[in-house]
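go over this:
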Amino acid sequence: MLALSAEGVLPRVDYAILADTGWEPATVYAHLDRLEKKIAAPAGIPVLRVASGNIREDALNPNHRFASMPLHILNQNGKPGMTRRQCTGEYKIKPIKKKVREILGYPYPQRIPKGVYVDQWVGISTDEFHRAKDADIRYIRNIHPLIDMGWSRRDCVEYLTSLGLADTPKSSCLGCPFHGNAQWRDIRDNSPAEWQDVVEFDAAIRKGNARANAGGNRLLGQAFLHRSRVPLDQAPIDHITTAERAALQDENERASAEELENGVLDGCSPWACRGDVAQDDFGLAC
């Protein structure tokens, strides 16, 4: 959408905002630098990077309040579970709303007058129109330009390819538990340093987040980044074969295999989160 705005296909936006969790892959930061230099700056569009902290460091800091990641849990009775997903609210939605308030001239906790709002573009394509939602606060009005244009994911890929941006990476935390095997393999095979980073983090969170442990609220079980609930460097992340996929006759099993390989489709969009989002004053104050 930034490129469409810069080229005049869509109206010129006043700002582009990225919520940085502090733990994106290096390819994402390099891509953002490229967008700023080659697309945003020539069009006079400021790119604002906002943050609420570093999600990796916060998870391992016993003195820091931590909004939980959706970790895969192996309970003491052997049954699988999953922790609540609060990280999207804390590290993506919260800093964006804070910046929007500043742009409007009403930083928290000032009350924003009725009728004062921003139009916020959300990049959801027609493939996922069901994810298009209104904002939960009145000073933000969600707009979905790709849906209005009738663009699918394929249209977006073709457009990016025409701009020389076919290698646009997916934005998500390096150690996101919603990764599929394809994402884990890509990190392992193409970025050894980042693979070592996520393997070490996976081992470090085995007993849950450090703040909870320090407060005596220990996890009754074990936590893992991979949905197989084994250490990441031992997880079965290598590609499922065509024969294995065909052997999955049940529709639910086929869907599960697809998600295991490619990850959760909804990913980590701030405005279309599939998990539990923690509400706070930045979300509730009008």
Residues 274-286 have pLDDT under 50 and may be disordered. The first helix runs from residue 2 to 6.
